[in-house]
Amino acid sequence: MAEYFLLKEIVERALAEDILYGDKTTDALFPRPILAIGELIAKENLIVAGLALFQTVFTVLDPSVFFEAFVKPGKEAKKGTCVGRLTGDGRVLLKGERTALNFLQHLCGVATLTRQFVLCVPKTTSIVDTRKTTPGLRALEKEAVLLGGGMNHRFHLGDLILIKDNHIALANGIANAVKATRATLSHPLKIEVEVTNIKEVEEAIKSEADIIMLDNMSIPEIENAVALIRKTAPLTPIEVSGGINLENISRVAQCGVDMISIGAITHSAPAVDISLEITVGTPTAT
pTM of the full predicted structure? Predict the structure, then answer.
């Protein structure tokens, strides 16, 4: 889980956007503290993620606000489920509501979409994320991917040598690119090469790439590439990327690849429908 100092920094920036100049409505209506209960209600089936960030919003505003989670991160919350409960000054709950829900709805959305992809493939195929993340939220989005049952690819540019099309173009070919990176490595990083056709697959195999990524290939092209790699470099992990969606992922997985990377699980995950219902008085039973 991301450390609290990271969560606090993210929350403070977000709150500054929303209440830097105060909350005129809440301040006008409630000049004094008012005890309130806020219950998080799932309005659709979803995978829970982002509760720590949700809680941090209210902790930053008022450390005395108490939050109790009823569904663990990574677990499914059915429509109508009370995911968690806040208890504290109603003014604080009102001021933090939108910021906290923005984070929670997005991160639950990432975990939920990831789970949908994971359920479409066999356990021998991993669903992995990319660096196509919201600036400043990468750690949290990648944690949500894990909670959805996926795996993390590169966390940053220092994690792996990943030679992509633009690298290949500037280096004048796959062989040159692999040779140059291998010659300068001072740490045992793996070298992955992105390829787009059979000719490039052959070059990557000949260059002894540690991982081969098949990018934006058709199903027949993937099948041919997998057959070639399994025959000539059987221990080389195979990744597929580009154009993957819920309609075609099962077919892609049937080609026998090891990993399928999907940028959409972080950059295009729809926010889930989850609300914070604030009332005065005793909370309802769970």
Answer: 0.93
Q: What is the pLDDT of residues 136-158, one digit of tens each?
A: 999 999 999 999 999 999 999 98
Q: Which of 132, 154, 179, 182 is catalytic?
A: 132
Of 3.40.50.880, 3.20.20.70, 3.90.110.10, 1.10.10.10, which CATH number belongs to 160-262? 3.20.20.70
7-43 tens-digit pLDDT: 999 999 999 999 999 999 999 999 999 999 999 999 9
Q: What is the DSSP string of 214-243?
A: EES--HHHHHHHHHHHHHH-TTS-EEEESS
Structure tokens at 166: 């633009």
State which fold the 4-117+270-279 domain adopts. Aldehyde Oxidoreductase; domain 3 (3.90.1170)
Please say if 215 is a catalytic residue.
Answer: yes
**Active-site hit among 89, 141, 192, 194:** 194
